[in-house]
Amino acid sequence: MGNAKKIIEQDHSFSEKEKKLETTVLFDGDCELIRAAAIRIEDMAPEDLLRYVPKSPLPPQCTPYNMRGWRRDCGAVVRGDTVVTPAS
Q: Keywords on this record (predicted)?
């Protein structure tokens, strides 16, 4: 990425605005790179993935919005059978 950015910055055919745009979203259209990043999660073993486990019973203040943010007072973050962040 550093080399690509240098090439774009040294190219006089780009305006300053175009240089900024090109170096900011350099890999936006790189479907292979985006695909590789997405597949990487799929390649992980299930026991390596982080999960959020809501408390049971769920406290009344725990809305779907709270749980989307993985709030500790609504549940715990686990990896496999290991608790990474315990519920408070």
A: Plasmid
